[in-house]
Specification:
Strand order of the largest sheet: 13-14-16-17-18-23-22-21-20
Bound molecules: MU-OXO-diiron, calcium ion
Helix content: under 10%
Number of strands: 31
Number of helices: 7
Strand content: 25-35%
Structural class: mainly beta
Length: about 650
């Protein structure tokens, strides 16, 4: 590829970049940084909260820790000079009132109690300083997702004696937490009681807004208006806006549905199967039987926005951002002040999207942004073989998304986003997960976690953006929008790194990491110093065996995009995924989520032997392994990672 954009990582190991190439890349990056500053100063552009002051990096970051070894131990390990503590575990009271129910280690808490406690399977997380608009690094709100449940651990006797109460408890273990946290002398605690503390669950009333609200396909027997749905599900990664709201994204929602009737084409396109994926909700909550309620699935698969500073505020499903298996929703400021939201659809051979708002963001009146995400344009990415790329508009009446093309109106285009993207010929990717926007340059990075079906018989073959058949280790792609404007319609891209194990017997699986080995990158985040944090989600079914025999438990690494070096920073306990990362504004406290410690290959534990894989974090005396938010600090109180 030759596209005037540093292409220092290719599949060909012999094509490792020479020094001059790296130097050239660094120089061009510095120039880009300078021009970003100049542009921001000249144009007085609005900058996002938590982003860079004066258009540059808030801090300049360089890797300052000694990388650690892979680990199969049942513990969290971090580099020398760092310490960790556990802050908020599944079942811990959220703290919205005094005297809330404590966690019962035998998992005998009721459904009603679960609705007042941390959900299961912590995922995306954000820190909002308190008070609103401040940059406090000692007091704030932590807002996080609870992606899904392991019913083997959630109930004292697992799936035995399955009941409406158990279904309700599982629904209440989904959604989000808002907790108030405070630091004193480097020690963080959850503030209880807190007027902000809140749980959003699989049954919280949620308003539906945007072009698909009220559409015929959104109406159900329980909601003839098509404008209100109960609950948000499978909230994977997240996003946040400069006006202080949280975005929570519905990923594998299809798995909660089963069907006693015929599946529609859209049910099948979204992965709904007659038997469902083992959650068994339809047995006691009939809206999860897509045969009886064929439109209920249309009400999931959206990006949901809510205001964490107002515990009474009703969350809103923003249909203008499309309906897919949304991994997350990541904001970037357009050059003219509109909001851009990048979106990945995490399923094999699905797409990368972006939404550009119609209106500009108000940085002075947060209420003026209340409905900003209801009006705008959705695009899907096409990656050209020559390193260029374009954003294709998904608007009814354009690009043959019309009656002749089988699309009735814009609501139809948005409800069937994947079908619309199929129709316009977007590029089928290797499972787009998190997207990270560099705080100064606006360069965008996206993890493509893995895709073992790439190049398999009857499936799409390799292309330049997804260049490896049987891609079990995944890669990280990146792009630069024309003019460094996130709203641009064209971009240039290259591959930042092909993940792999440099010791692998199969040369095609070694990747080209400059530094420590990893595979299945998922969580991805730039800190304010421009360091790139990478979290892995190797499926429990392959962890520590086969291709992954040498890579240990799931881990978190930190990359310097100027040198390309990637260093291992954290290894997790057994059976976990590492996902969710944020720091306080001063960079001195990092919050990371440890998801599903102790998960078995079947993803559902045996309640008679809950410690079969892990006892983290409570140890053998605790009843069950528990997902948890951990705090990472440097012993000397310095900026994490540097
Ligand atoms: Fe929930 Fe795509 O990870
Ligand atoms: Ca993920
Ligand atoms: Ca994943
Ligand atoms: Ca996960």
């Amino acid at each position: 590829m030759s596209h005037g954009y540093s292409n220092r990582t290719t599949l060909n190991a012999s094509a490792n970049p020479g020094f001059s190439e790296i130097l050239e890349a660094r120089i061009s990056r510095r120039q880009l940084l300078k021009s970003a500053v100049a542009l921001a100063v000249a144009g007085g552009l609005p900058l996002p909260l938590g982003g860079c002051a004066a258009g540059g990096l808030r801090r300049e970051g360089r890797l300052g820790f000694k990388g650690i070894a892979v680990s199969t131990a049942d513990t969290v390990r971090v580099p020398q000079g760092y310490r960790t503590s556990v802050l908020y575990r599944w079942g811990d009271p959220v703290g919205s009132a005094a005297g809330m129910p404590a966690f019962k280690p035998d998992a005998s808490n009721s459904a009603a109690e679960q609705a007042l406690q941390a959900g299961m399977h912590h995922d995306g997380i954000h820190y909002f300083p308190l008070p609103y608009g401040s940059d406090s690094s000692a007091h704030g709100l932590l807002v996080m997702n609870h992606e899904y449940t392991d019913d083997g651990l959630l109930h004292a006797d697992g799936f035995a004696n399955w009941s409406a109460e158990k279904v309700r408890k599982a629904q209440n273990a989904h959604g989000c937490s808002v907790i108030e946290v405070r630091q004193q002398g480097g020690q963080w605690n959850v503030v209880q009681p807190s007027k902000y503390a809140r749980r959003v669950t699989g049954n919280t009333p949620i308003r539906i807004s945007g072009p698909a609200a009220g559409a015929a396909a959104m109406k159900t027997a329980a909601d003839p208006s098509g404008a209100e749905v109960l609950g948000t599900l499978n909230n994977c990664a997240h996003g946040y806006t400069p006006w202080g709201t949280y975005l929570t994204c519905e990923e594998n929602w299809d798995g909660y549905f089963a069907s006693s009737g015929a599946l529609t084409a859209d049910h099948r396109r979204n992965g709904i199967s007659p038997k469902g994926r083992g959650y068994r909700w339809h047995e006691f909550d009939e809206r999860f039987d897509a045969g009886r309620h064929p439109n209920e699935p249309n009400r999931f698969g959206w990006v949901v926005e809510f205001d964490p500073f107002d515990p009474q505020a009703r969350p809103v499903k923003r249909t203008a951002l499309g309906r897919t298996s949304h991994e997350g929703a990541w904001y970037a400021p357009a050059a003219d002040g509109r909001a851009v939201i990048y979106l990945g659809d995490d399923r094999r051979f699905e797409y990368i999207y972006k939404f550009v708002s119609r209106d500009r963001v108000s940085l002075t009146d947060r209420n003026a942004n209340r409905d900003l995400l209801d009006h705008g344009t959705l695009y899907v990415a096409r990656f050209h073989e020559d390193g260029g790329g374009e954003w294709i508009e998904l608007t009814h009446g354009k690009n043959r998304l019309d009656a002749a093309g089988g699309f009735a109106d814009q609501a139809d285009v948005l409800i069937r986003t994947r079908a619309a993207a199929d129709a316009v010929g977007a590029t089928k990717m290797d499972r787009p997960e998190w997207i990270a926007v560099h705080p100064a340059t606006r360069e965008v990075y996206c993890t493509l976690t893995n895709n073992s079906a790439r190049g398999a018989k009857g499936r799409p073959g390799v292309d330049a953006a997804n260049p490896r058949a049987n891609n079990v280790f995944g890669h990280i792609i990146r792009w630069r929008e024309d003019g460094n404007d996130p709203a641009a319609l064209k971009f240039k891209w290259d591959i930042f790194v092909m993940a792999g194990d440099s010791q692998h017997a199969d040369a095609g699986k070694r990747g080209n990491i400059k530094g420590d080995a990893f595979g299945s990158p998922d969580g991805l985040w730039f800190d304010d110093g421009g360091l790139l944090w990478i979290q892995t989600d190797v499926s429990t079914s392959v962890l520590n065996k086969g291709d992954y025999a040498n890579l240990g438990n799931n881990q978190m690494l930190c990359g310097d995009i100027d040198t390309g070096e990637i260093r291992r920073f954290l290894t997790g306990p057994r059976g976990c995924e590492i996902t969710g990362i944020i720091t306080t504004p001063d960079g001195r406290t990092m919050f990371v989520n440890i998801q599903h410690p102790g998960e078995t290959a079947s993803e559902r534990n045996d309640p008679r032997n809950p410690h079969a894989v892990s006892t983290w974090p409570d140890g053998p005396a605790g009843g069950r392994p528990r997902s948890a938010t951990i705090v990472i600090r440097k012993d000397d109180g310095g900026v994490v990672g540097t």
